[in-house]
Amino acid sequence: MIGWTRSRAPSPPVPSQDVACGSAFTLFPGVRINVGKRGISTSIAVPGASVNVGRQGVRATVGLPGTGLGFSTTVIPFTSSPGAVELAPSALPQNAPASAKIYMPVSGMNEIASASVEVLTSTSLLPLRDMIAQAREQRTQVTADLKEAKDAEAAQQNELHRRRRSLFRWFYKRRIAELEVELPVTQAEVARLIAWEGSTKIDVTFESGDAAQRAYAEMVRLFEALRQSAKKWDVTSHRAANRVAERTTASRVIDRHPVRLEFSATDLIRFPGRAMRFENVNGDDILIYPGVAVIPRVDGAFALIDIRELSISAGNSPFQEEDGVPKDAEVIGHTWAKANKDGSPDRRFKDNHQIPICRYGRLTFQSGSGVTEEYMFSNAAAAEAFAAAVARYQVALAESDGSSEP
User: Fold this and answer.
1) What is the residue extent of each domain of the chain?
2) At 206, which helix (H) or strand (E)?
3) How many other CB atoms are there within 10 angstroms of residue 69's CB atom?
């Protein structure tokens, strides 16, 4: 194999882009994600009880404060089916872009894409995913109720101010008295809803051993080096090259799109650090947190994946580069735009020219639940180093004593 070449299909066009008082809401607690030898478990602390989510199910421990009495029981055993979370329309994120990116697969190519996010979540993280979805839905309702309450407060204040200053305020005496009673009630509802806004996000604390924390810090450092690659592409589809008909020495034809890597976050969880985000042209971006990968979809659905269930492997990609050699790429040879089977130039083509062959780095993301993604980087060494750091981190997690699984 001499290398790969790029699909020349044209890119598709990109389209342009009364107060509800007394509502009852749920207080969402902080969550500790414990990553240890036996896998991920999630601990949820509430007054007088704790809930631990692990591979065997949801175990509740309930105690009577001050008595020392308590009991523990598995209340929700897991099944083999991962299930799916269905969000109400009101639960969809409000910061979705006006026009989402549109990807059209190239005809005749095999698309490289993950399964739907509904089926990607790790079994041990299903309860946490559903809790986050519930928190998001409640936040949407709280925001709507708060706007309604503030509008009512402003209307009542304006009316009361207007009635009090009127020359005919004596005729409005009864209405003024009503407003003086109603306004404090509305203001109390506004204050209550403002307080609830801070309780509709889940604070997540990731816990693991010291070795795992150091390995994660190294992974973050090497991600920064990876994102500094001069060129970064999402490989969205591929096919085997017809070397005779296409007069090429390449064995594989790919369709690739420039992407960004960045440190980012999602509104799904509140975490003091930032995630490593891999942009995904023909699917949903991948965000890597300590121990967990988050794949959010623009319509509000999302997946949570145990990082040890996500295989991130590196490889070399000899590539026939016709769009200009990136400054940090290594040129390992040359070929011809139209080549014979033995690599010599095909003299039948006028203006046949040489093409540099670059050594690029390749990262593939795969999981048993259906993650399938491929990226290409002009800095091959950076891709290899990042994949090795991920592997070291996964080993450190497996050896960690941070798990408190039931």
Assistant:
1) 3-11+206-398
2) strand 202-207
3) 9
The pair of three-digit structure tokens given for residue 247, joined into one six-digit string: 């007069």
Burial zone of 353 (CB within 10 Å; 0-12 exposed, 13-18 middle, 19+ buried): exposed
pTM given for the model: 0.73
Answer whether 60's CB lies under 8 Å from 44's CB. no
Give the residue carrying structure tokens 């299930």. 83
The residue assigned the tokens 């639940």 is 369
DSSP state of 223: H
Residue 51: alpha-carbon gap to chain centroid: 25
What is the arithmetic mean of pLDDT over 216-239? 96
Torsion from C-alpha of 209, 210, 214, 215, nearest 10 degrees: -30
The token pair at 122 is 């790790």
In sign, the C-alpha dihedral spanning 212, 214, 220, 225 is negative
| Phi, psi at 384, each rounded to 5° | -65, -40
Phi, psi angles (nearest 5°) of residue 196? -70, -25
Tell me the helix, strand and coil percentages in the chain, rounded to 5.
30, 35, 40
E strand map for 14-68: 31-36, 39-46, 49-54, 57-64
pLDDT tens by residue, 77-115 = 434 333 333 333 333 344 444 444 566 777 788 999 999
Report phi then psi at 48, rounded to 5. 80, 0
pLDDT tens digits for range 178-198: 999 999 999 999 998 888 887
Virtual torsion, Cα 333, 337, 340, 343, nearest 10 deg: 0
Amino acid in position 386: F
**90, two tokens:** 């009101």
